Each structure stands twice: as C-alpha cells, then as structure tokens.
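Render this sequence as a predicted structure.
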Amino acid sequence: MSSKALRLGTRRSRLAMAQSGQVADAVSQVTGRAVELVEITTYGDTSREHLAQIGGTGVFVTALRDALLKGEVDFAVHSLKDLPTAQPEELALAAVPLREDPRDVIVARDALKFTDLPRGARIGTGSPRRMAQLNAYARSHGLDIETVPIRGNVDTRIGYVHDGELDAVVLAAAGLSRIGRIDEVTDFLSIDTVLPAPGQGALAIECAADNAELIAALGELDDPFTRVAVTAERSLLAALEAGCSAPVGALADLLADGQIVKEMRLRGVVGTTDGARMVQLSTTGPVPETNDQAMALGRELAAEMLAQGAAGLMGERAH
C-alpha cells in the first residue's frame, strides 16, 4: 500500500468523532499509514424532525456512502445500527470490530434507577423501540411512566435531565462509553427489560468493494463473533421489512460452556409504542459459521414473529 494518508469519512458529532478516532488509530497500526478524519454532515444531523418521521433508515449514512462512491474518502465508520439492512454492491462491509456493551442505559435525576422513578416520571427517548419496551415493562410491573420523544446529541439529551425538563433519558451504553461519560449512567437496563437495536454497540467500517488491498487491511479489525451476531440481528430486521426507526429490538449472544462457545441465542421483540401489544421470541442454535447461516437464523425467528402478528405492531412497514 502507498504511504499516502488514508481518508476516513465520519459524521461531525462528538460520538462519531470519538469512535472514528479510535478506528483511525487502529487502522494506522495495521496499515502503517496516517489516517485523517474527513467530517461529513448527514441529513440526520441537520434535520430537526424525529427519526420516526424522517424514516430513520440511512439518514446518518447516505452522505458518507456518497463520499465513498465519489472517491472523496477511502473508508467510512458508521454506528452499525444506523446502516440500512441492504448492502450496496459497490461498497464492502470490510470490518465489524469487537462490539461494546449493547445495552441501553438510564441517566436519571438524583441517581435514580428505572424502577425507582416516581409515579408519572417523564423519560426521554427518540426511539420507538425503547418506548415500546419501557412502556410494556411499566404496564406489567405497575409503574406509571410517560415516554417523551426527544432528539439531539448526548449533551442535549442529558441536559434535559439536568435542567429538570425530564426525570430520565435513555441512551446506549456504548456511546457513553466511547465519549468517556459512562460514569453518568444511573441504571443499566437488563436485556430482559429492553432488547437493544439490531447492531447496537457495534461499528461498521465500509470501503469501496473494488479496493481489495484496503478491504484486506481493514479486515484485520474484524471480530468474527460480533459479525455473525449482528448479521443475524440485521437479518431479522430485514425479514420483518422494518427500517432502523421501527420498534424492533434484537440481540444475538453467544452461549459458552466455560471457555468454549457452544451456541448462539437470538432474541427479537416488536411492539406498539404504548407497550400494549408485544411479540417477543427467541431461538437458539449452533454458532453460525457463515454469513448465510447467520442470515438464516434471523429469517427463521422473523418468520415465527410474523406468524404471531408482528407485522401489525410496527405501524407502516418500511420497504
């Protein structure tokens, strides 16, 4: 490879810059080349509409992909949960690095845990998935909460709590960890309470599909277990024909016997945002050894969920 600096396309947000900076350091180590960040503004960054209204799918990704296709950057880093499930032929998902904590977390006033929030507590989130599951949990455990739709970066969201506008906000553990603010979390939400978004906590590194040399270099950062897990989760999402703003949660985790990984469990949930109706199922099988096997695991669980009425819980299905 040449010694010219590699150009890494990234969103401008503090979180995007932090995770892109971490990837840049890792890529420099494996390639021996300098990596410079190229800041790109996406539609999702400038729109003030709620994600559910603008469709969610691809709003943080399209501008980065356009820059890749035009040759303005050599590779791009995305939060994997923002990627549409269909992969363009011209682009390669060169690496999915080791995943961070996939859980959702609460940042609440007075260091409160979710179950200790007062009656009528106002909880902010921009995610229909989080709303559906928090409201379902509250219904089944006699809690009285109000979920409030919000937008904005981490500072803005946590600011609503500090300013007293909201009692709590829900965020992704991985994002707070990457920007060094994990100590502000007042409660880690159990996977049994809230299933994360498909791919949550994982990053995606994309480059042009015809750049075999760069694909091979970036591939050094790939974590095979993370890749099969998120592939199964995203396959479930795709088979439900749901966009990344739909109220769908999914998590594939590895079940180990001591040090030996034996099986993979895939859990999926879909529900109405008021939490009144939910379809939640899981399946367990051998750890997928290929992309096709991981895709099949997701499709199988999606078919079971659709058979139980999942499609009717998602509002308008995204095609």
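Summary. The two ends are 40 Å apart (CA to CA). Residues 14-31 form the longest helix (18 residues).
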